[in-house]
Specification:
By secondary structure, the protein is an alpha+beta fold. It is built from two helices and five strands, in the order ααβββββ.
Amino acid sequence: MMYGLPPVPPYRYALQSGVPPVTPVREPSPPGRDSTSRESARESTHRESGMKESSARSSGYSHYFYKPFLRHAQRLMRRRVEVGTTSGKLVGELRGVFSDHLLLVADGREWHIRLEQIVYLTPAN
Protein backbone atom coordinates (compact mmCIF):
# COMPACT_ATOMS: atom_id res chain seq x y z
CA MET A 1 0.00 0.00 0.00
CA MET A 2 1.25 3.46 -0.94
CA TYR A 3 1.03 6.14 1.73
CA GLY A 4 -1.10 9.23 1.07
CA LEU A 5 -2.42 8.10 -2.32
CA PRO A 6 -5.86 6.74 -3.09
CA PRO A 7 -5.98 3.16 -4.41
CA VAL A 8 -5.73 2.94 -8.19
CA PRO A 9 -7.83 0.35 -10.05
CA PRO A 10 -5.63 -2.20 -11.87
CA TYR A 11 -6.88 -1.18 -15.33
CA ARG A 12 -5.64 2.44 -15.04
CA TYR A 13 -2.11 3.61 -15.60
CA ALA A 14 -0.58 4.86 -12.36
CA LEU A 15 1.84 7.74 -12.72
CA GLN A 16 5.26 7.19 -11.19
CA SER A 17 5.22 10.57 -9.46
CA GLY A 18 1.97 9.85 -7.65
CA VAL A 19 0.45 13.09 -8.96
CA PRO A 20 -2.99 12.62 -10.53
CA PRO A 21 -3.19 13.31 -14.27
CA VAL A 22 -4.24 16.78 -15.38
CA THR A 23 -7.24 17.09 -17.64
CA PRO A 24 -6.30 19.02 -20.81
CA VAL A 25 -7.95 22.43 -21.05
CA ARG A 26 -9.22 23.64 -24.39
CA GLU A 27 -8.74 27.27 -25.22
CA PRO A 28 -11.97 29.14 -25.87
CA SER A 29 -13.00 29.33 -29.51
CA PRO A 30 -13.10 32.62 -31.39
CA PRO A 31 -16.56 34.20 -31.66
CA GLY A 32 -18.75 32.58 -34.30
CA ARG A 33 -16.85 29.30 -34.29
CA ASP A 34 -18.10 26.11 -32.73
CA SER A 35 -15.84 24.87 -29.93
CA THR A 36 -16.12 21.29 -31.25
CA SER A 37 -14.99 22.30 -34.74
CA ARG A 38 -11.78 20.68 -35.98
CA GLU A 39 -11.15 23.52 -38.40
CA SER A 40 -7.81 25.21 -37.80
CA ALA A 41 -7.44 28.93 -37.27
CA ARG A 42 -5.76 29.23 -40.68
CA GLU A 43 -8.65 27.48 -42.45
CA SER A 44 -11.14 29.63 -40.56
CA THR A 45 -9.33 32.81 -41.63
CA HIS A 46 -9.24 31.70 -45.27
CA ARG A 47 -12.91 30.74 -45.21
CA GLU A 48 -14.02 34.02 -43.61
CA SER A 49 -11.94 36.23 -45.91
CA GLY A 50 -12.83 34.32 -49.08
CA MET A 51 -9.16 33.55 -49.75
CA LYS A 52 -8.22 30.31 -51.44
CA GLU A 53 -5.42 28.10 -50.15
CA SER A 54 -2.82 28.08 -52.92
CA SER A 55 -0.23 25.73 -51.54
CA ALA A 56 -0.18 22.00 -50.83
CA ARG A 57 2.33 22.59 -48.04
CA SER A 58 -0.36 23.35 -45.44
CA SER A 59 -0.99 21.18 -42.42
CA GLY A 60 -3.73 19.20 -44.18
CA TYR A 61 -5.27 18.53 -47.55
CA SER A 62 -6.25 21.67 -49.42
CA HIS A 63 -9.09 20.88 -51.76
CA TYR A 64 -8.86 24.40 -53.26
CA PHE A 65 -5.49 23.47 -54.75
CA TYR A 66 -6.14 19.82 -55.57
CA LYS A 67 -9.35 20.11 -57.60
CA PRO A 68 -7.87 22.05 -60.53
CA PHE A 69 -4.63 20.09 -60.29
CA LEU A 70 -6.45 16.75 -60.46
CA ARG A 71 -8.55 17.96 -63.43
CA HIS A 72 -5.34 18.93 -65.24
CA ALA A 73 -3.78 15.56 -64.40
CA GLN A 74 -6.89 13.72 -65.71
CA ARG A 75 -6.37 15.41 -69.09
CA LEU A 76 -2.83 13.98 -69.20
CA MET A 77 -3.88 10.36 -68.51
CA ARG A 78 -2.15 7.72 -70.68
CA ARG A 79 0.32 10.33 -71.89
CA ARG A 80 4.02 10.68 -71.23
CA VAL A 81 4.54 13.29 -68.51
CA GLU A 82 7.30 14.79 -66.41
CA VAL A 83 6.57 15.04 -62.68
CA GLY A 84 8.80 17.25 -60.58
CA THR A 85 8.84 16.26 -56.92
CA THR A 86 10.54 17.59 -53.82
CA SER A 87 13.25 14.95 -54.29
CA GLY A 88 13.76 15.06 -58.08
CA LYS A 89 11.87 14.44 -61.31
CA LEU A 90 10.33 11.40 -62.95
CA VAL A 91 9.41 10.95 -66.61
CA GLY A 92 6.93 8.25 -67.56
CA GLU A 93 3.36 7.40 -68.48
CA LEU A 94 0.63 8.72 -66.20
CA ARG A 95 -1.59 5.70 -65.48
CA GLY A 96 -3.74 6.86 -62.58
CA VAL A 97 -5.04 9.99 -60.90
CA PHE A 98 -6.36 9.48 -57.38
CA SER A 99 -7.56 11.83 -54.66
CA ASP A 100 -4.25 11.64 -52.77
CA HIS A 101 -1.63 10.46 -55.30
CA LEU A 102 -0.68 9.92 -58.94
CA LEU A 103 0.36 6.59 -60.46
CA LEU A 104 3.26 6.96 -62.87
CA VAL A 105 4.96 4.12 -64.77
CA ALA A 106 8.61 4.93 -65.44
CA ASP A 107 11.19 2.40 -66.67
CA GLY A 108 8.78 -0.49 -66.04
CA ARG A 109 8.23 0.46 -62.38
CA GLU A 110 5.07 1.87 -60.84
CA TRP A 111 5.55 5.04 -58.81
CA HIS A 112 2.82 6.22 -56.44
CA ILE A 113 3.53 9.91 -55.91
CA ARG A 114 1.71 11.73 -53.10
CA LEU A 115 0.22 15.06 -54.14
CA GLU A 116 1.99 16.89 -51.30
CA GLN A 117 5.34 15.96 -52.86
CA ILE A 118 4.56 17.20 -56.39
CA VAL A 119 6.09 20.51 -57.45
CA TYR A 120 5.00 20.46 -61.11
CA LEU A 121 3.38 18.23 -63.73
CA THR A 122 3.87 18.81 -67.44
CA PRO A 123 3.65 16.80 -70.68
CA ALA A 124 7.04 15.34 -71.59
CA ASN A 125 8.67 16.04 -74.95
